Amino acid sequence: MRVKFDRDTCVGMYQCVAEWDAFEKNLNDGKADLRGSEEEDEDVFVVEVPDGEEFDAKFAARVCPVDAIEVYDDDGEQVV
Protein backbone atom coordinates (compact mmCIF):
# COMPACT_ATOMS: atom_id res chain seq x y z
CA MET A 1 0.00 0.00 0.00
CA ARG A 2 1.26 3.49 -0.78
CA VAL A 3 0.20 7.05 -0.11
CA LYS A 4 0.35 9.93 -2.57
CA PHE A 5 0.30 13.42 -1.05
CA ASP A 6 -0.28 16.56 -3.13
CA ARG A 7 1.43 19.14 -0.94
CA ASP A 8 0.42 22.02 -3.22
CA THR A 9 -3.26 21.20 -2.55
CA CYS A 10 -2.70 21.03 1.22
CA VAL A 11 -4.21 23.96 3.14
CA GLY A 12 -2.58 23.23 6.50
CA MET A 13 -5.54 22.06 8.56
CA TYR A 14 -3.25 19.30 9.93
CA GLN A 15 -6.05 16.77 10.44
CA CYS A 16 -3.79 14.17 8.80
CA VAL A 17 -1.14 14.85 11.47
CA ALA A 18 -3.61 13.92 14.18
CA GLU A 19 -4.49 10.64 12.44
CA TRP A 20 -1.16 9.27 11.19
CA ASP A 21 2.27 10.06 12.58
CA ALA A 22 3.82 9.88 9.09
CA PHE A 23 2.48 13.40 8.61
CA GLU A 24 4.01 16.31 10.50
CA LYS A 25 3.28 20.01 10.72
CA ASN A 26 5.47 22.38 8.77
CA LEU A 27 4.54 25.67 10.41
CA ASN A 28 6.99 27.63 8.23
CA ASP A 29 5.11 26.66 5.07
CA GLY A 30 1.66 26.26 6.63
CA LYS A 31 1.38 22.77 5.18
CA ALA A 32 1.91 19.19 6.24
CA ASP A 33 4.97 17.14 5.31
CA LEU A 34 4.94 13.40 4.63
CA ARG A 35 7.91 11.96 6.47
CA GLY A 36 10.14 9.54 4.54
CA SER A 37 8.45 10.29 1.22
CA GLU A 38 9.99 10.82 -2.19
CA GLU A 39 8.95 13.54 -4.59
CA GLU A 40 7.19 11.86 -7.52
CA ASP A 41 6.22 15.05 -9.31
CA GLU A 42 6.41 18.73 -8.42
CA ASP A 43 4.92 18.98 -4.90
CA VAL A 44 3.55 15.41 -5.10
CA PHE A 45 5.10 12.99 -2.63
CA VAL A 46 4.76 9.21 -2.26
CA VAL A 47 5.61 6.76 0.48
CA GLU A 48 5.04 3.07 1.12
CA VAL A 49 2.81 2.44 4.13
CA PRO A 50 4.54 0.32 6.78
CA ASP A 51 2.82 -2.88 7.88
CA GLY A 52 0.28 -2.22 10.58
CA GLU A 53 -0.26 1.43 9.63
CA GLU A 54 -2.74 0.90 6.79
CA PHE A 55 -5.77 1.96 8.83
CA ASP A 56 -4.07 5.17 9.99
CA ALA A 57 -3.00 6.03 6.45
CA LYS A 58 -6.52 5.52 5.12
CA PHE A 59 -8.02 7.57 7.93
CA ALA A 60 -5.57 10.43 7.32
CA ALA A 61 -6.71 10.49 3.69
CA ARG A 62 -10.38 10.42 4.65
CA VAL A 63 -10.12 13.39 7.02
CA CYS A 64 -8.22 15.65 4.61
CA PRO A 65 -10.65 18.48 3.85
CA VAL A 66 -9.18 19.13 0.38
CA ASP A 67 -8.48 15.52 -0.70
CA ALA A 68 -4.72 16.10 -0.93
CA ILE A 69 -4.04 12.51 0.19
CA GLU A 70 -4.71 9.38 -1.87
CA VAL A 71 -4.15 5.77 -0.81
CA TYR A 72 -3.43 2.98 -3.30
CA ASP A 73 -3.41 -0.78 -2.74
CA ASP A 74 -0.56 -3.03 -3.92
CA ASP A 75 -2.25 -3.43 -7.32
CA GLY A 76 -2.23 0.32 -7.88
CA GLU A 77 -5.97 0.72 -7.34
CA GLN A 78 -7.04 3.82 -5.39
CA VAL A 79 -8.80 2.82 -2.15
CA VAL A 80 -9.19 6.32 -0.67
From TrEMBL:
Any Pfam family matching the protein: Fer4_15
Domain of life: Archaea
SUPFAM superfamilies noted in UniProt: 4Fe-4S ferredoxins
Any GO MF annotation of the entry: metal ion binding
Keywords, alphabetical: Electron transport, Iron, Iron-sulfur, Metal-binding, Transport
InterPro entries per record: Fe-S_cluster_ET
Entry keyword annotation includes Lyase: no
Entry keyword Electron transport: yes
Descriptive protein name: Ferredoxin
Originating organism: Halorubrum lacusprofundi (strain ATCC 49239 / DSM 5036 / JCM 8891 / ACAM 34)
Lineage, top ranks: Archaea, Methanobacteriati, Methanobacteriota, Stenosarchaea group, Halobacteria
